[in-house]
Amino acid sequence: xxxDYLSSITKVANNINEVALNKAxxxxxxxxxxxxxxxxxxxxxxxxxxxxxxxxxxxxxxxxKKCRVFDLTSNKSLISAISNDxxxxxxxxxxxxxxxxxxxxCIFISSSGNSKNIINGMKFAKKKKLKIIGIxxxxxxxxxxxxxxxxxxxxxxxxxxxxxAQIIMHYIYLKLK
Length: 177
Prior knowledge:
Blueprint: H1 2-13, H2 18-33, E1 37-42, H3 45-61, E2 68-71, H4 76-87, H5 91-99, E3 105-110, H6 116-127, E4 131-136, H7 143-146, E5 149-152, H8 158-176
Parallel strand pairs: 1-2, 1-3, 3-4, 4-5
């Protein structure tokens, strides 16, 4: 079963657009060099991936590069307050409104590409002129059209998308090093 799983995930990985991935790496590197913020978010398992990226990129790139990464899923008190008092669909857009500045980057990780809080966050980011990177699964969903740089993992399983999103985040870090 493990060999079958690894074989199937390798097939999906081999179809990731390397041009888009390299474009994302260049945009992230430019943002770091220009002291811009990098925001990362996702739901469920993708939220833990954004938290992991924050950890790796912040700790492992410093002191060579001062990477200002913020995980929009990490503050459970703020997320629950926004969800309760405003709307759960605005948990990312609200934080981007408070914290982001023009030309910052926001990375949205989404298996379906259709979660309302992801879509609202992307629409807000577009309005505020943030660079939008999407690490997307399934058919890319609505997020595919909203991302400036869509990195698409053509898979119909959450497991493949989440594994590949983690690999992509590690790959980006290694290329930035």
